[in-house]
Amino acid sequence: MAAHLRVYPLAKDDPDVAVQEPTVRVSLGDLLPLVALAHRHNYLWLQDFLEDEVVITSDLYEVLRAFRCSRPSA
Q1: Does residue 17 belong to any structural domain of this protein?
Q2: For 32-74, what is each residue's pLDDT tens digit?
Q3: Domain range for residue 46?
Q4: Residues 6+ positions from 61 with CB-CB distance below 8 Å
Q5: How many domains does the chain have?
Q6: pLDDT band for position 12 (50/70/90)?
Q7: How far apart are the C-alpha atoms of 64 and 4, rounded to whole Å?
């Protein structure tokens, strides 16, 4: 299944949304292999975090957006 990049505005004024503030920094190089392994083996715990937001730099966002638009379809 292809991953779709979605962008959401920050919802700071919505009192119904419980937001857990990020407290741990991790490099993309450390994170990606673990997430890929969990995805490949269908670990159920990964589904608990699918709606979590991830903050990335604007240059990474632009690269991902260009990659999504330029990939040939199967």
Answers
A1: no
A2: 999 999 999 999 999 999 988 888 999 999 999 998 888 666 5
A3: 28-70
A4: 5, 7
A5: 1
A6: low
A7: 10
Whether residue 60 is contained in a domain is answered as yes
**Type of residue at 62:** E
C-alpha distance from residue 36 to each of 19, 30, 52 (Å): 25, 11, 16
More confident residue, 19 or 66: 66
Q: Are 39 and 72 in contact (CB under 8 A)?
A: no
Asked if the structure places residue 56 within a domain, the reply is yes
Query: Is the Cβ–Cβ distance between 8 and 53 less than 8 Å?
Result: yes
Helices (H), ranges, the chain: 28-40, 58-70
Would the pTM count as exceeding 0.70?
no
CA-nearest of 23, 25, 11 to 57 is: 25
Cβ–Cβ contacts within 10 Å for residue 38, how many? 15
